[in-house]
Design brief:
seven-stranded parallel beta sheet, 14 helices
Length: 426
């Protein structure tokens, strides 16, 4: 049965999406979880986002503790490591009655790893990380393989992310990319304004902002650079080596609301992403492509998968001269910018959250089928009631039920529909 768009049902599937990083910090994993949760809710699912946080959170997010910032993979990541966060996470996933627990970076302590070990229902893991070496997967390989064997399905956001985890923890990984919310129409051409380049990201070394600043210093007068995500004080220190005239044409916006960031991105002539490595996908690149903004990015794993073959898209990492030449070429040729923007927008059509969520829902269905066939208990507990999964017969209607969601069956429908549920027979 495929209900009309927007049809409502009394009982909806319950999903927990677990994010290991601080919900109140900027990051690609947080953006991914936020977009997926929004689309699943639009389809009628009941979604709890479980994550640490260092400030107030919105409805639908359950904060399990504060974080510490630790260095990892050329960046600094905010994770919760306290015993209290472990206890809260375990209690939430054990008692939440979720049909599916979707873990992002399942081996990251303490929140995702705890949820992986404690969740009694169907477990799906998404892997985002990429590094040139195995990093901590190697010394903890046996533990990782044993823990990840608890997953009923595995997703990687790119082939680079898949290769990173699979070299130590082999298995079947389905590649489902990050999603984006494309604007309704491509940006209108700007006339008379100074050419604008935009950088969006944290000031971590691996993001390569100093490379862009050096390249910017080689460009003609009149070009402007908007840096989003880097505080002004830190930006001023990074830009100190620029000629004074060039430094005055750089604006450091710091962290801004999503609406403001989207406006700055859509108003740019070019997005530059000069990362030095460690990138598994490039969510900001996908957002620029969806907005019809040309991209100049480092030729690194992850970025290459996304923008390889687009006009002027890839430059050697850590090369300010090559970056400047690619930017000059695009800024000097409006026709080339238009073609590059249109090509990127066409490629990003497969990355809408509607399309991506269709694929994630299909993985959830397979995970529930696998859970139904499995008898593996969690921590010696009896098999979770959601093992008893049945699909709704064609033409049937959902039954009214006050049963917890763990005793309900689910069936997924296409984009624009909802998930529906009914009571299973014991």
């Amino acid at each position: 049965m495929h209900p009309r768009r927007g049809a409502g049902y009394r009982r909806n599937v319950r999903i927990a999406i677990v994010c290991p990083y601080s919900w109140t910090a900027a990051g690609g994993v947080q953006s991914h979880v936020r977009g997926l949760a929004r689309e699943l809710r639009r389809r009628g699912a009941e979604v709890d986002v479980v994550a640490p946080a260092d400030g107030p959170v919105e409805d639908g997010v359950i904060a399990v503790g504060r974080t510490l910032t630790i260095p990892d993979n050329g960046s600094r990541v905010p994770v919760a490591l306290s015993p209290a966060a472990v206890a809260r996470t375990a209690r939430l996933v054990r008692r939440g009655g979720h049909d599916v627990v979707h873990l992002h970076e399942p081996m990251i302590p303490a929140v995702s790893l705890t949820a992986l070990l404690a969740a009694p229902g169907a477990r799906v893991g998404t892997f985002h990380m990429y590094a040139s070496g195995p990093r901590w997967y190697r010394p903890f390989g046996p533990l990782c393989r044993a823990a990840l064997a608890r997953l009923d399905a595995r997703i990687a956001v790119s082939d680079a992310a898949r290769r990173h985890v699979a070299r130590t923890c082999p298995g079947a990984y389905e590649i489902i990319p990050n999603g984006v919310h494309p604007p309704a129409a491509p940006p209108a051409p700007r006339e008379g304004d100074a050419p604008r380049i935009v950088f969006v990201g944290r000031g971590d070394r691996r993001k390569g902002l100093p490379v862009l600043l050096e390249a910017f210093g080689r460009l003609a007068d009149g070009v402007r650079l908007d840096v989003v995500g880097v505080p002004a004080r830190r930006g001023a220190a990074l830009a100190a080596a620029l000629p004074p005239g060039a430094a005055r044409r750089v604006t450091f916006h710091g962290r801004v609301p999503d609406e403001r960031r989207d406006t700055l991105l859509a108003g740019a002539d070019v997005l530059c992403a000069p990362a030095l490595g460690g990138e598994s996908f490039g969510l900001v690149l996908a957002e620029a492509m969806a907005a019809g903004v040309p991209v100049v990015a480092s030729d690194v794993d992850g970025y290459r998968e996304l923008v390889g073959g687009l006009p002027q898209a890839l430059v050697p990492p850590g090369d300010p001269a090559a970056t400047a030449r690619a930017l000059e070429t695009l800024l000097a040729d409006p026709g080339l910018r238009a073609r590059a923007g249109a090509a990127g927008r066409a490629r990003a059509a497969a990355l809408t959250w509607e399309a991506v969520t269709d694929r994630v829902v299909a993985v959830y269905e397979r995970a529930l089928d696998a859970r139904r066939r499995s008898t593996r208990p969690a921590f010696g507990r009896p098999a979770h009631p959601s093992h008893r999964v049945a699909r709704m017969p064609t033409g049937s209607r959902p039954e009214r039920s006050s049963a917890p969601s763990s005793a309900r069956a689910i069936s997924g429908v296409g984009a624009g529909g909802v998930w529906r549920a009914r009571r299973t027979s014991s």
